[in-house]
Write a structure and sequence with these properties.
A hairpin with a 2-residue loop joins strand 5 and strand 6. This protein has one domain. The chain contains 2 helices and 6 strands. The chain is globular. It has 109 residues and is an alpha+beta fold.
Length: 109
Amino acid sequence: MVAAEHLQEIRLVCNQAEAMAEGAQDYIHLPALTLPDGCTPRQVDALLCLSQHSGYSTRLFLAQSVSGRGNNWTPHVIFGKTWYTWSWNHVPSALRPMEILAEHLRGLR
């Protein structure tokens, strides 16, 4: 479960962020998340997974892949919808959710 203060911190960058869970996985849904400069699309719905998923410490899933950024994009079905993520590992789950998000976004610069 995502602590209220951590969700509030994430809402500073994505004001409609909400905690969600599927099975044992905790996620933060980030509607219309603004991506780093130079990314296409510039805004996209996202899911931040705060624990291990598919062999990675944490993951950031996007509603579509980012053109020309990230490597080895793969699709995953979560909450009945297809999400995309790239090969970006070693973002520890011990960080605050805002720090996890920032580290994943760094992988798109």
